[in-house]
Specification:
Blueprint (H helix, E strand, L loop, with lengths): L2 H27 L5 E7 L15 E7 L1 H10 L16 E5 L2 E6 L3 E9 L4 E3 L5
Antiparallel strand pairs: 1-2, 2-5, 3-4, 4-5, 5-6
């Protein structure tokens, strides 16, 4: 190997390492897309009334990797007696107003809500 070839190999190695380090940093603090939906309503989730300026809430539901990460971070599972389902493959975890579930068929889903006039969190799902 001549000096020029060694220089190219070293430069490419340093560039590859820099890119790998940059991607690892992005993995933990970079913005990522969300997969989910939301519903704006008044009253309670079960009533589904039209929202008003003084009674407006938003329920959010997220699926995919974000829901899986959140599910894993808020554990442990709720007791089977307190869960919203008794299905064998159903797992549920709650922390405050955040509720995450896992089923083999549907994967991970997380729910939470926001009371818009007060800015306070609320439940985003009902059993």
């Amino acid at each position: 190997m001549n000096v020029q070839t060694v220089g190219i190999v070293v430069a490419l190695s340093i560039f590859s390492l820099a890119q790998a380090a940059e991607k690892k940093e992005e993995e933990w603090y970079g913005q990522k897309p969300l997969n989910g939906n939301y519903q704006v309503y008044g009253g309670t989730l079960s009533e589904k009334l039209a929202p008003t300026p003084k009674d407006r809430k938003v329920a959010f539901m997220f699926k995919g990797q974000f829901a899986k990460d959140l599910f894993n971070q808020i554990g442990p599972d709720v007791k089977k007696d307190d869960a919203c389902s008794s299905a064998a493959d159903y797992r549920e975890r709650r922390r405050g107003d955040v509720d995450c579930v896992y089923t083999k068929d549907s994967g991970y889903s997380c729910y939470f809500g926001l009371d818009v006039p007060t800015g306070k969190s609320t439940y985003g799902s009902i059993c």
